[in-house]
Amino acid sequence: MSHRQNDPGRRGLDRRRFLTTAALGGATIVGASALGGLDADAAFAAPMPSLDPAISRSAFAEGRITQIKGSVLEVAGSHGDQHLIQLTNATSIWKLRTTTADQIQVGDGLYARGVDMPDGTIAADAVWVNIVNLYCTVKGIAKDRLHLAHGAQDHAVVGHIVADTTTASYLGGALTSDLSRVRIGQSAQILGAWRPADDAIDIARVTVGH
Amino acid sequence: MACGSTSLWAGETTWFCCGSAWGPCGSAGGGACGTCNSSAHQAAWPNASQSCWNITRPDLCGENMARRGCGSVMNVKHQCSGATVCVTVSDCGPRTQSFCGESTCCNGACRTNRVIDLTPAAFSAIGNLSSGKLPVYIYE
């Protein structure tokens, strides 16, 4: 990382200017990682600068996608609100893994972070599609899935193990593809992507506790 | 109540969903305070009440943070980036005792044990949701 990238104020300013420009259609394509918005499991807790210090808080939206018009996502918020999310060349998109906009579908849920634009849209810095982070108890283990219970009502949910994607962390240790130490009855934090079609989850990472 | 700068605690933060929501979060409800909302800058604190403490039991991991009930305000700061977010306690959590000894690091410095949970709006203000957890300082 260059010295310039380590200057939070400078990065914030550049980032906002870039997002704004990108949303208006004048951006040169650059990697989102240069803006601090790229996600990777290996980048646990990577420092992320605030957006432009002149902005007291970044914009945030959540809900389900009702329509996709070009690079704009129409989102129905869970509280009856509506959002227009503008994807730009700088938008980091996560759907089980870092991915591209063509993987986003109507009916998906999302959380989006960005900058409010004058036209009422949010120019997104990052969009996390269908992401969930659930505290669960492991109820059953099969070759390709975990049977889980979460929430006060012990809602049953199936967590699918995805080849070449699902990893495990045992008490915060290094990520491994070895899930053999997961046991029935253990507490587990499940980071993954909800599947609207069957209400199951594709597991990105299972963090096992005591 | 304003967000202060007096040091309160340090450790890991994770994120959770609550209130009206899509997917499996739809069953989460309004949390222990009845006001929890994923879109608001809110947090869950492991000592929000005695009954909360009895569930989270951070003392079993050596964490004996003070009681701060519903409506308490905290400033949560990313240990490395310095990004901050002001949050209101709106739920009980995380279950610290279930992950005793877990640590999260950045720039070679680590924070141990889950001591606060943030809503998606709050967590994403200081980090990326896909990281799942962050090392933070907490002020009030």
TrEMBL record, chain A:
InterPro entries for this protein: TAT_signal (IPR006311)
Q: Per its UniProt entry, which superkingdom is the organism in?
A: Bacteria
User: Which PROSITE patterns has this protein been placed in?
Assistant: TAT
Q: Any idea what this protein is called?
A: Cell wall protein
Automatic annotation (TrEMBL), chain B:
Q: Which Pfam families match?
A: DPBB_1 (PF03330)
SUPFAM superfamilies in alphabetical order: Barwin-like endoglucanases
- Ranges for domain RlpA-like protein double-psi beta-barrel come to 59-137
InterPro entries given in the database record: RlpA-like_DPBB, RlpA-like_sf
Q: What is this protein called?
A: RlpA-like protein double-psi beta-barrel domain-containing protein
Q: Which organism is it from?
A: Actinacidiphila rubida
Q: Top-down, what is the taxonomic lineage of the species of origin?
A: Bacteria, Bacillati, Actinomycetota, Actinomycetes, Kitasatosporales
